[in-house]
Amino acid sequence: MRYKNVKTGAVVETDCVCRGADWQEEKPARSSAPSKTAAGKKRAVKKNDQLCGD
Known about the structure:
A hairpin with a 5-residue loop joins strand 1 and strand 2. This protein has strands at residues 2-5, 11-13, 23-26. Helix content is 0%, strand content 20%.
């Protein structure tokens, strides 16, 4: 499930239920086309890229 924080705009995807006044479940897009990044290209992850607060 995808959840969006209405205060910050942060989006998380998790198998868990996200509870709280600021979190709303996002409905999946109806488009069958694969999603792209803002630039239209996928970005390669480098070895030294940080992950979630590392």
